[in-house]
Amino acid sequence: MGPIPESSGPSTRSSARPAVPSALRAPLLTGAAVGTATLLLALRDPHVRGSYGFCPLLELTGLACPLCGGLRATHDLAHLDLAGAWSANALWTVTAPVVVVLWLAWLVSAARGRPVRGLSSTAGWVTLAVALAFFVARNLPGLQPYLTPWITPWITPWS
Question: How many CB atoms lie within 10 A of CB 139?
């Protein structure tokens, strides 16, 4: 065996970290942004009135929109308080885990280099219908104690 030849040109090894594949950038940036927002909500309690602003629809009409209570529900979910999250916004409490699973599917598809299929128009219409049904249901006096208890205190007939 002879001596190991030395390369006269630049080294083929790079000391720089490998770049994140472009397909992973969007899901990773989305995850980082949502994670940061969730951390902010976990640290600063939105249950304090006015801490994150107000809902114009609620202030003007007294009706809770489908998103009302979403920040409080996210805070409660971050603290693993499922009952508190449900009382703040039942729809978001059920939807948040679905959103996380969809994000994970997006991340895995991007990591494997597979094209990511968007949701169908049917999924959009179903989402709109569910949001509208929730909007109506949470503002019905008979369901308010269960779906929007923070608007009016629930008074039982026996109290």
Answer: 18
